[in-house]
TrEMBL record:
It holds the Pfam family Fer2. Transmembrane segments: none annotated. Keywords: 2Fe-2S, Iron, Iron-sulfur, Metal-binding, Oxidoreductase. Residues 4-80 form the 2Fe-2S ferredoxin-type domain. Gene3D superfamilies: 3.10.20.30, [2Fe-2S]-binding domain (1.10.150.120). The lineage of its organism: Bacteria, Bacillati, Actinomycetota, Actinomycetes, Streptosporangiales. GO terms for molecular function: 2 iron, 2 sulfur cluster binding; metal ion binding; xanthine dehydrogenase activity. The keyword Iron applies. InterPro entries: 2Fe-2S-bd (IPR002888), 2Fe-2S-bd_dom_sf (IPR036884), 2Fe-2S_ferredoxin-like_sf (IPR036010), 2Fe-2S_ferredoxin-type (IPR001041), 2Fe2S_fd_BS (IPR006058), Beta-grasp_dom_sf (IPR012675), Diverse_Oxidoreductases (IPR051452). This is Xanthine dehydrogenase iron-sulfur subunit.
Length: 163
Protein backbone atom coordinates (compact mmCIF):
# COMPACT_ATOMS: atom_id res chain seq x y z
CA UNK A 1 0.00 0.00 0.00
CA UNK A 2 1.44 3.37 -0.94
CA UNK A 3 2.18 6.23 1.40
CA UNK A 4 -0.50 8.86 1.93
CA UNK A 5 -0.38 12.60 2.41
CA UNK A 6 -2.12 13.45 5.68
CA UNK A 7 -3.17 16.97 6.60
CA UNK A 8 -4.11 17.78 10.16
CA UNK A 9 -4.35 20.72 12.49
CA UNK A 10 -1.71 20.10 15.13
CA UNK A 11 -1.86 22.33 18.19
CA UNK A 12 -3.67 24.96 16.15
CA UNK A 13 -1.36 24.90 13.12
CA UNK A 14 -2.12 23.12 9.87
CA UNK A 15 0.53 20.48 9.21
CA UNK A 16 1.11 17.87 6.55
CA UNK A 17 3.07 14.64 6.43
CA UNK A 18 3.61 11.67 4.18
CA UNK A 19 2.67 8.53 6.10
CA UNK A 20 2.92 4.83 5.49
CA UNK A 21 -0.23 2.85 6.32
CA UNK A 22 1.41 1.41 9.45
CA UNK A 23 2.38 4.79 10.91
CA UNK A 24 0.52 5.52 14.12
CA UNK A 25 -0.45 8.98 15.27
CA UNK A 26 2.07 8.56 18.10
CA UNK A 27 4.84 7.75 15.62
CA UNK A 28 3.96 10.79 13.53
CA UNK A 29 3.90 13.10 16.55
CA UNK A 30 7.24 11.91 17.89
CA UNK A 31 9.20 11.04 14.75
CA UNK A 32 7.85 13.49 12.17
CA UNK A 33 6.93 16.49 14.28
CA UNK A 34 9.38 16.00 17.16
CA UNK A 35 6.69 16.28 19.82
CA UNK A 36 7.84 14.06 22.66
CA UNK A 37 5.11 14.87 25.20
CA UNK A 38 2.98 11.86 24.28
CA UNK A 39 4.95 8.92 25.64
CA UNK A 40 5.45 5.51 24.11
CA UNK A 41 4.40 3.26 26.99
CA UNK A 42 2.79 -0.11 26.43
CA UNK A 43 2.15 0.40 22.72
CA UNK A 44 -1.15 -1.45 23.14
CA UNK A 45 -3.47 1.31 24.32
CA UNK A 46 -3.49 0.06 27.90
CA UNK A 47 -1.47 2.67 29.79
CA UNK A 48 -2.69 6.01 28.39
CA UNK A 49 0.76 7.60 28.40
CA UNK A 50 0.29 8.49 24.72
CA UNK A 51 -3.09 10.20 25.20
CA UNK A 52 -3.75 13.21 22.97
CA UNK A 53 -6.93 15.00 22.00
CA UNK A 54 -8.36 14.11 18.61
CA UNK A 55 -11.09 16.57 17.68
CA UNK A 56 -11.39 17.31 21.39
CA UNK A 57 -11.70 13.72 22.58
CA UNK A 58 -8.93 11.83 24.38
CA UNK A 59 -7.47 8.94 22.39
CA UNK A 60 -4.50 6.65 22.81
CA UNK A 61 -2.36 7.76 19.90
CA UNK A 62 -0.42 4.48 19.75
CA UNK A 63 -3.48 2.72 18.33
CA UNK A 64 -4.59 5.34 15.81
CA UNK A 65 -3.31 4.96 12.24
CA UNK A 66 -2.32 8.50 11.29
CA UNK A 67 -3.89 8.09 7.84
CA UNK A 68 -7.29 7.95 9.59
CA UNK A 69 -6.93 11.41 11.14
CA UNK A 70 -6.66 13.31 7.86
CA UNK A 71 -8.52 16.60 8.31
CA UNK A 72 -8.73 16.29 12.09
CA UNK A 73 -7.53 18.51 14.91
CA UNK A 74 -4.90 16.99 17.19
CA UNK A 75 -3.83 18.61 20.44
CA UNK A 76 -0.85 17.44 22.43
CA UNK A 77 0.53 18.47 25.79
CA UNK A 78 2.89 20.82 23.93
CA UNK A 79 -0.11 22.75 22.64
CA UNK A 80 -1.68 23.49 25.99
CA UNK A 81 0.54 26.06 27.70
CA UNK A 82 0.76 29.62 26.44
CA UNK A 83 4.52 30.11 26.47
CA UNK A 84 5.60 29.82 30.09
CA UNK A 85 2.02 30.20 31.33
CA UNK A 86 0.61 26.80 32.30
CA UNK A 87 -3.03 25.90 31.86
CA UNK A 88 -5.16 25.58 34.95
CA UNK A 89 -4.87 21.79 34.78
CA UNK A 90 -1.08 21.86 34.40
CA UNK A 91 -0.74 24.34 37.26
CA UNK A 92 -2.99 22.23 39.48
CA UNK A 93 -0.80 19.18 38.84
CA UNK A 94 2.21 21.20 40.00
CA UNK A 95 0.41 22.71 43.00
CA UNK A 96 -0.92 19.36 44.22
CA UNK A 97 2.25 17.33 43.58
CA UNK A 98 0.37 15.17 41.12
CA UNK A 99 3.51 14.15 39.30
CA UNK A 100 6.46 12.09 40.37
CA UNK A 101 8.42 10.52 37.55
CA UNK A 102 6.22 12.42 35.09
CA UNK A 103 5.91 9.63 32.52
CA UNK A 104 2.12 9.43 32.78
CA UNK A 105 1.58 13.15 33.38
CA UNK A 106 1.03 14.32 29.78
CA UNK A 107 -1.61 11.65 29.19
CA UNK A 108 -3.27 12.38 32.53
CA UNK A 109 -3.39 16.09 31.78
CA UNK A 110 -4.85 15.52 28.31
CA UNK A 111 -7.57 13.25 29.73
CA UNK A 112 -8.29 15.76 32.50
CA UNK A 113 -8.41 18.64 30.02
CA UNK A 114 -10.94 16.79 27.88
CA UNK A 115 -13.05 16.08 30.95
CA UNK A 116 -13.09 19.70 32.11
CA UNK A 117 -13.83 20.94 28.60
CA UNK A 118 -17.03 18.90 28.51
CA UNK A 119 -17.88 18.86 32.26
CA UNK A 120 -16.93 22.03 34.18
CA UNK A 121 -18.17 20.70 37.51
CA UNK A 122 -17.08 17.06 37.64
CA UNK A 123 -17.57 14.78 40.60
CA UNK A 124 -14.75 12.75 42.07
CA UNK A 125 -16.24 9.74 40.24
CA UNK A 126 -16.24 11.68 36.93
CA UNK A 127 -12.53 12.38 37.37
CA UNK A 128 -11.77 8.77 38.29
CA UNK A 129 -13.62 7.57 35.20
CA UNK A 130 -11.92 10.15 32.96
CA UNK A 131 -8.44 9.02 33.96
CA UNK A 132 -9.19 5.31 34.30
CA UNK A 133 -7.34 4.61 31.05
CA UNK A 134 -4.21 6.34 32.31
CA UNK A 135 -1.87 4.29 34.47
CA UNK A 136 0.33 5.93 37.11
CA UNK A 137 2.81 3.61 38.74
CA UNK A 138 4.42 5.96 41.22
CA UNK A 139 2.37 8.93 42.46
CA UNK A 140 -0.92 7.25 43.04
CA UNK A 141 -4.22 8.64 42.00
CA UNK A 142 -5.26 10.76 45.01
CA UNK A 143 -3.06 13.78 44.17
CA UNK A 144 -4.09 13.53 40.53
CA UNK A 145 -7.82 13.49 41.33
CA UNK A 146 -7.33 16.37 43.78
CA UNK A 147 -5.47 18.35 41.10
CA UNK A 148 -8.21 17.84 38.51
CA UNK A 149 -10.94 18.85 40.98
CA UNK A 150 -8.87 21.92 41.93
CA UNK A 151 -8.45 22.89 38.27
CA UNK A 152 -12.21 22.56 37.81
CA UNK A 153 -12.82 24.84 40.79
CA UNK A 154 -10.33 27.38 39.38
CA UNK A 155 -12.08 27.34 36.02
CA UNK A 156 -15.49 27.88 37.61
CA UNK A 157 -14.12 30.75 39.74
CA UNK A 158 -12.50 32.35 36.69
CA UNK A 159 -15.74 32.03 34.74
CA UNK A 160 -17.70 33.73 37.56
CA UNK A 161 -15.09 36.52 37.71
CA UNK A 162 -15.46 37.15 33.96
CA UNK A 163 -19.22 37.69 34.23
Amino acid sequence: MPSTIVTLTLNGTERELIARPSTTLLDALRETFGLMGAKRGCGQGGCGSCTVLLDGRPVVSCLIPVVTVDGSAVETIEGLADGDRLTDVQQAFVDHFATQCGFCTPGMIMSATALLDREPDPTRQDVAEAICGNVCRCTGYEPIITAVLSAAARRRAAARADV
